[in-house]
Write a structure and sequence with these properties.
Helix 12 runs antiparallel to helix 13. Strands 1-2 form a two-stranded antiparallel sheet. By secondary structure, it is mainly α. The chain has one domain: Up-down Bundle (Glycerol uptake facilitator protein). The chain contains 16 helices and two strands.
Amino acid sequence: MDCVVPVGASLLANAVVHAPKIYPVTEQPGTAGVVAKSPPPGSHAMTTPTDGKTPNLSTDEQHEVEKNQPPRAAVLHEIIRTQGDQELERSIAALWWSALAAGLTMGLSLMGMGLLNSRLPEGDEFKVIASFGYCAGFLAVILARQQLFTENTLTAVLPVMTKPTLKNFGRLIRLWGVVLFGNLCGTILVAYVMLELPIFDSKTDHAFLEIGRKVMENHASQMFAKGIVSGWMIATMVWMIPSMESAKMWIIILITYLMALGDFTHIVVGSAEVSYLVFAGELPWSDFWMVFAGPTLAGNIIGGSFIFALISHAQIRSESGAPKTDKPNSGKPREDESDSKPR
């Protein structure tokens, strides 16, 4: 038996099926006569964040933000501490040969300044240009990862400050002794070779002598004070490099160029400059050790180790805990997230 549907009921059912969706209308408080429609489900309308963050960032964009954040000071501290611990573990033979190579290479600083001074007109204003030659030795040594004493006053000290045991102190003294001895042997040897072998013309030889005479114009207390500044600047450079590895060369040039302009004393570079005077017969060895080497070495150690390394280490140890993250803990929503949900 056929079921007959009334024409009116059929038209009513069809109208219900094809009727447009109607969304609820809400009024924003405080806006007289203005009615705002709620967005349909699944829409991407702009929302106002309650935590101060930029809204509507995709997951990839959030990862990009995290990736481009500068490293925390604690991260830099751990990088340098790890490097120092690795240096402390190296054998005496490996340290010696690397330090000797570094001392020979640091002769490039004396050579660079001498060559520029001999080819530029006389005058203090041209020192601004000639001082760039001072950077040559540091660039070659640091980029070649050779053992430089003042660089190790920071990297090797941090592991000892982190774990101050007699064993670590012994390892530090061993490293300092071998590296310093190798550096001085290299710089003294290269100064002798530069003077005795017929490599440079008389004008350049005279420029080398003038560089050494300029250093010895300082008395012992000035050597010590300028050595503190020099050690602090080298330690600052070592601290900066891990956070800006792509600009490593420019950081080295900037710091060492300022050292040259300020006539700050450095035990490794200065030993090449002053020993050149000794081999030329203008200075006794006693003045080399008592007036230059001793005070400068003490200043470099204090500036690089006991001031910069100690302050930087204290800064890191004073930080409390790990940085806060945006991830919820134990599956519970954060307070700002729960406050931002519609009620």
